[in-house]
Design brief:
By secondary structure, the chain is of the alpha+beta class. It is built from 3 helices and 4 strands, in the order H-H-E-E-E-E-H. The protein has one domain. The protein is 33% helix and 15% strand.
Amino acid sequence: MRDMINPWKLKKQLINSEICRNCFNNKYRTNLQKEYFLYTYYASECSVCNEFKHTVKGFTAKGKIKILGCKKVSV
């Protein structure tokens, strides 16, 4: 059985970080679309790419299901 990404643990990590969707997909090697994420209301600076974008703060129900199917990678 492969290790899966736990979306609930990821959400706790996202609360303290400012990361955009593109950087999230690159970091966790996923290809999730924007409808699977919950974003901040105001744009802020991404801590990875240093661009002003709406950062990821959580996942929709459909997004959590998609993440459960993703394979865990070492970060």
